[in-house]
Amino acid sequence: MRTENRAPGRHDLRHHGDAEVRDDGSALVDLAVNVRADTPPAWLRERITASLTGLAAYPDGRAARAAVAARHGLPVERVLLTAGAAEAFVLLARALKVRRPVVVHPQFTEPEAALLDAGHTVDRVLLREEDGFRIDPAAVPEDADLVVVGNPTNPTSVLHPASTLAELARPGRVLVVDEAFMDAVSGEREALAGRTDVPGLVVLRSLTKTWGLAGLRIGYVLSAPEVIAELERAQPLWPVSTPALAAAAACVEPRALAEAEEAARRIAEDRARLVAGLASFAGAGVRVVSPAEGPFVLVRMPGASDVRQRLRTLGYAVRRGDTFPGLDEEWLRLAVRDRETTAGFLAALSTALDVPT
User: Fold this and answer.
1) What is the pLDDT of residues 273-304, one digit of tens each?
2) What distance in Å separates the CA atoms of residue 11 and residue 25, rounded to the nearest whole number?
3) Is 0.70 surpassed by the pTM of this model?
4) How are strands ordered across the β-sheet holding 123-126?
5) H or E stretch including 317?
6) Right CATH for 42-254 from 3.40.50.1820, 3.40.50.300, 2.60.120.10, 3.40.640.10
7) CATH level 3 topology of 7-38+257-353
8) How buried is residue 164: exposed, middle or buried, by Cβ count under 10 Å (0-12/13-18/19+)?
9) φ and ψ at residue 97, rounded to 5 degrees
């Protein structure tokens, strides 16, 4: 684990998994994007469709905000609805007055990109494969007044203990925990959402991954009222559309939470199947970061860049890993999919690696 002063420019921070399935990749089987397949469900599409009759009026987010607050047992003053979690990173970068922001990598790259765009100099704490990509709070500079970390972390699929992340909190420090994939973890264990006892805590949540709403853009921020007020001032008027507000209210209802929990259990089973299949290629140098806890796994293999291209010719898109700081060309990220898709992918991987089945 080491700290880098000032972000070097060799990583494309604005490359994301959707780039793998655009244009000539649109017909590929998608293991590059971490959005749950077969979503949104019919009942959610109906709720969103029903909201379209109200499009002539300006969006009113009060009911959705109250629903999210109730879901986490918080007052509404601790909740801000955003156009996806990505907007929240931009708001944080623009609204908060910080001197030394630190981003813990490898992780989702938008937080650093937003900070750089806002004129900040960003330091990195790079987690290491040999440590299982797990964080040691002592590795974060003591004078860092903004720390950003994902949990479970994209792309490593590491789930950090909530107690470890809470150790990062300091008076005068903003601690941003990106929990965009936490609802894909059974029981949401290690979640910090809803906690009010951690000073400076900001938790970001997304509703686009589990519910297949990436095109609708809906997420939210949980934090102290004074932080929420600062972020809200940085937002444009009516930042979240009426259909997105309808989705937000629907996705935090008890029925939806139960469905998300069932989906998380299925993801765990499907992930175990994928990891076991990948383990069969250990002789070819394939290594999986373990234990994986998110709806994706991070894999290291020799010649990963060439393997990725071969997989494309075989009909499968996977996410390159070299755009994540702390990783290089030997890494790929794979979304967890159902049994049939996984079986087809593993057969294609065998061909791409030229390993007999």
Assistant:
1) 999 999 999 999 999 999 999 999 999 999 99
2) 22
3) yes
4) 2-4, 123-126, 101-105, 146-150, 174-178, 201-206, 219-223, 79-82
5) strand 316-320
6) 3.40.640.10
7) Aspartate Aminotransferase, domain 1 (3.90.1150)
8) middle
9) -95, 100
